[in-house]
Write a structure and sequence with these properties.
The structure is a single chain. The protein is mainly β. The chain has one domain: Roll (SH3 type barrels), CATH 2.30.30. It has one helix and six strands; from the N terminus they run βββαβββ. Strands 4-3-2-1-6-5 form a six-stranded mixed β-sheet, with no helix packed on it. The longest helix has 7 residues. It is globular and about 30 Å long. This is DUF2171 domain-containing protein. It comes from Halolamina litorea.
C-alpha cells in the first residue's frame, strides 16, 4: 500500500507503468496529488485518467498510484 502524500512529493515526476511521463506534482496533500500535465501527454492517456485537454492542474488520487520510488511516482498498470 502506498503511503499518504506529503510535501516531499512536490516536484516528482508522475509516470505510467510503462515509464511514460504524465506530469509533475505541483502540490501533495494526504491522498491527493495535484499534477501539472506534461505538454506532450497523449489524448488517450488523458482520457484514461479522466483529464480534459484543457486542464492545467489536475488531481490524482492515491488509489491510482502503484509506488513511489526516488523522484518518480508510478501509476498502476490498469489505468
Amino acid at each position: 500500500m502506498v503511503r499518504n502524500f506529503n510535501d516531499s512529493d512536490q516536484g516528482k515526476r508522475v509516470v505510467t507503468a510503462d515509464g511514460d511521463e504524465v506530469g509533475m506534482v505541483s502540490r501533495a496533500e494526504g491522498t491527493r496529488l495535484h499534477i501539472t500535465p506534461s505538454e506532450n501527454l497523449s489524448r488517450s492517456v488523458r482520457r484514461r485518467l479522466g483529464w480534459s485537454e484543457d486542464d492545467e492542474d489536475v488531481v490524482l488520487r492515491k488509489s491510482k498510484v502503484d509506488s513511489i520510488a526516488g523522484d518518480e511516482i508510478h501509476l498502476k498498470k490498469n489505468l
